[in-house]
Amino acid sequence: MLELAESYALLNRSGKTQRDLLRGRTLINLFFENSTRTRTSFELAGKRLGADVINMSVQTSSVAKGETLLDTAATLNAMHCDLLVVRHNLSGAPHLLSQKVDASVINAGDGTHEHPTQALLDALTIRRHLGRLEGLLVVICGDVTHSRVARSDILLLTTMGARVRVCGPATLIPPEIERMGVEVFTDVRPALEGADVVMMLRLQKERMAHGLVPSAREYFRFWGLDAAKLAWAQPHALVMHPGPINRGIEIDSAVADDIEHSVIHEQVEMGVAVRMAVLDILSRRGPGNE
User: Is the dihedral of CA 231, 237, 238, 243 positive or negative?
Assistant: First the structure.
């Protein structure tokens, strides 16, 4: 999948498209949570492959009037769409939909569970810059407890042979996360020593109870990434962030915009290529796949 995504990245940079691959296929973006990067990149990916793309606005749909997820699934199934991209605030919602619709279902983020295509684009970005994933040391820092990105990245990167460390306040580290094969730190300095990749996470205040973190100023002092902390990592270390960025809370603007280390904008670019690859592969396999 990463090899195919790489070919789409090169194709996109050349300005060319493959408008015939998904011609006659229908892709529906069903987002129960707000999104800019993910929804737009799936829309671009679908259109660049020639699909008919429909963005369903949940706020103005029957869901807002009380329709259940299963009723929504029955409605979508009657429309005979081919590809269904789902983001939902409840973990497991895309899996449930995949059992109720004939379309191929793609998880665009479910609750605090997973965000598979984000992990794929992160892996592609890393590989493009460092040439490999195996043997690299990746540090994921911040609100790990509420991050579906962290979970998917841990699964993918450890599978591909990378070493992964997670770091953050003890209140934002999930219990027993060591079982996922990661090292756990609450102190940034030892966590960052020798890191090839530093991936910062957004503080998801909308998902957390009060009192889990100190003030924003104190959080940045201890766990926010600035130039002084980045110096503890490898000289070639990449700086990543799934977005949206809270500047001055989890990352300093100077680091986020540092062209020598930051690949945050390239992550967005690779998101389109990865999602084109996902749509391509699922369209070959036919409906009924998640």
Answer: negative
φ, ψ dihedrals at 59, nearest 5°: -60, -30
Q: Which helix (H) or strand (E) holds 237?
A: none
Query: Would you call the peptide bond into 244 cis, given omega within 30 degrees of 0 as the criterion?
Result: yes
* pTM summary value: 0.92
Question: What is the rounded CA–CA span in Å between residue 223 and residue 206?
Answer: 19
Contact 89, 73 (CB under 8 A): no
Nearest to 282 by CA among 32, 61, 105: 105
- How wide is the angle at C-alpha 129 spanned by C-alphas 128 and 135, nearest 5°? 95
Question: At what angle are helices 116-130 and 2-14 packed, to 10 degrees?
Answer: 70
Q: Let me know: does 146 contact 173? Beta carbons within 8 Å.
A: no
The Cα–Cα gap between 212 and 207 comes to: 11
Give the model confidence (pLDDT) of 221-240 as tens digits: 999 999 999 999 999 999 99
DSSP state of 170: G
Alpha-carbon gap, residue 290 to 288, rounded angstroms: 7
